[in-house]
Design brief:
Helix content: 25-40%
Organism: Botryobasidium botryosum (strain FD-172 SS1)
InterPro entries: Kinase-like_dom_sf, Prot_kinase_dom, Protein_kinase_ATP_BS, Ser-Thr/Tyr_kinase_cat_dom, Ser/Thr_Kinases-Pseudokinases, Tyr_kinase_AS
Number of strands: 10
Structural class: alpha+beta
Pfam families: PK_Tyr_Ser-Thr (PF07714)
CATH superfamily of the largest domain: Transferase(Phosphotransferase) domain 1
Domain Protein kinase: 72-351
Keywords: ATP-binding, Nucleotide-binding
């Protein structure tokens, strides 16, 4: 007798519904007891934590409650950038998470909100855009979005804390470790994004995280957009110039009649080629160039980085095949660059059969 199978989406819905009912039961008991949680009710949190750990699913459409996220400290940053900062927290009493909030500064890389969102602050606009894209993503090599949490009037995006941090630091600390598996996984995540019509827009080693098992997770969707999206201001240089020039496709740096070209899947592929160089050398692209204006001239001229000749680069996976792929990703004509699916297939073919253990 055949047994019926359910889709991954159906399973996720069923698990989410079950966890929602458990949360509601817990909340009713809290209200009955005047919001005081006796020790015996900690089992509810333990059940929810176990379900989340097993499924990676957690229902929080209305945001987290105070007892779901604890041990937070806005003053203790674990990551700080121009447009946002991150700090740690504890989820359901046992899972380490990262809470990211966006700075409400005037020097903003985004255009003002368009019709329909009048009066919305720029920080709120940025956060809403990032969440709208991120929450739809579900892939082994995409950093999961858990939910939103409000702390002291600050809205934070919550995601799992990834043990090894960013891939560029991970690679720099491991000169004897192959990065091919990481590159294959990033390519897999990228082809998933492009298949959904999502352009990452800021792919670099800093925005790729590495788990304790040595697996890659693409993160930071603050500069991402949908292929058919039009509400970021097409005349906003800040929107188009967001991200680091060392990884940026040259066509994005040339305005035509004061209009900046849109980011595309091909510009993502260009950035991926730079990531190949970054992870196999443990250094930034054009690391020897320190002057920003000189770097801009180099990128606009179409000059490619020189091939590293060190043994470390070869050990990390920069074979002839992988270097040829990186160069193809840097084609000046965006239409000549490979697709994410092509990149994934070529990297899979380049991984030695013996490379089965993770570094």
């Amino acid at each position: 007798m055949q047994t019926g199978r359910i889709s991954a989406e159906s399973f996720a819905t069923q698990v989410s519904d079950l966890m929602s009912r458990m949360k509601q039961s817990f909340l009713k008991k809290m209200l009955t007891l005047g919001n005081i949680v006796p020790p015996q009710h900690t089992r509810y949190m333990a059940y929810l934590a176990a379900f989340y750990q097993a499924s990676g699913i957690y229902p929080c459409s209305d945001g987290f409650l105070t007892w779901e996220i604890t041990d937070t400290d806005l003053t203790h940053h674990i990551g700080h950038g121009r447009y946002g900062s991150c700090f740690q927290g504890k989820f359901l009493g046992r899972h380490d998470v990262v809470l990211k909030y966006l700075h409400a500064n005037d020097d903003d890389i985004y255009s003002k909100p368009r019709q329909g969102v009048d009066g919305e602050s720029r920080a709120d606009f940025r956060l809403r855009r990032e969440v709208e894209i991120w929450k739809k993503l579900n892939h082994p090599h995409i950093l999961p979005f858990i939910g939103l949490y409000k702390l002291h009037d600050t809205i934070c995006m919550v995601s799992p804390r990834i043990e090894h941090g960013s891939a560029h630091v991970y690679a720099a600390k491991r000169p004897d470790a192959s990065c091919l598996n990481l590159l294959v996984q990033v390519a897999d995540g990228l082809q998933y994004l492009h298949g959904l019509g999502v352009i990452h827009g800021d792919l670099c080693g800093h925005n790729i995280l590495v788990t304790a098992a040595g697996d890659a997770r693409i993160a930071d969707f603050g500069l991402s957009l949908m292929m058919d999206e039009d509400y970021p201001d097409s005349n906003s240089s800040g929107w188009h110039l967001g991200g680091n020039i060392r990884w940026r496709a040259p066509e994005l740096l040339r305005s035509i009649n004061s209009t900046w070209p849109h980011k595309t899947t091909a510009s993502d592929i260009f950035s991926f080629g730079r990531v190949v160089l970054e992870l196999t050398t443990g250094a930034r692209p054009f690391a020897e160039v320190l002057n920003d204006l000189a770097l801009l001239d180099i990128v606009l001229s179409g000059e490619c980085p020189r091939r590293p000749t060190s043994d470390d680069a070869m050990t990390r996976g920069l074979s002839d095949e992988v270097w040829a792929l990186a160069k193809d990703c840097w084609a000046q004509n965006p239409e000549e660059r490979p697709s994410a699916a092509d990149v994934f297939a070529r990297l899979q073919a380049a991984v030695p059969v013996t490379l089965t253990t993770r570094q």
